[in-house]
Design goal:
With 173 residues, this protein is mostly helical. It is 71% helix and 0% strand. The chain folds into 3 domains: 34 residues, no CATH class; 89 residues, no CATH class; 46 residues. The longest helix is centred in the C-terminal third of the chain and has 35 residues.
Length: 173
Amino acid sequence: MSAWCRATDRSAALGFSFNKVLWHTMGKSKDSASNLGIWATLFVSSFYKRNQGRLIRQLTAVALGVAVIAGFYTFSQAFLQESGRAVKVGVPFVLIVAGLWVVFRIVNLPRFADFLISVEGEVDKIAWASKQELIRSTLVVLGTMFLMGFLLLLFDFFWQQLFRWLHVLEITA
């Protein structure tokens, strides 16, 4: 075994990482490398933690994508009506493609993706009610609302009659 291999094995056993030293000597910490801003990661086409938080990230991307498409369609209808066909179709198409790329990058930003991953983890912990329990709870809420509405009607009628009797409230028909 060469001296380099023994040194590498020994340094790995001590928790020494050449990459950490390289990042620190460049004036950056390893944590800041994973937290680059959107402009620094805009042209990277990789997925961040591909299989984690997949459903919530896909739903977020679809919602943002629909907003991008609707926004640029509205833009084209409002501001490009008097333009030629190439401008009416080309400009919104290019803007939509660019917007969808930005949406893809946003849901793969490390901070945002980690947030969505943790959201999906918390949603998985929720104990959802059964259908029967949901129906019972809904009936209780509706019954309480109608009861409170009826009690407010009775209080309103009582105070109205009391103020009429005291001649504080004069209602003319």
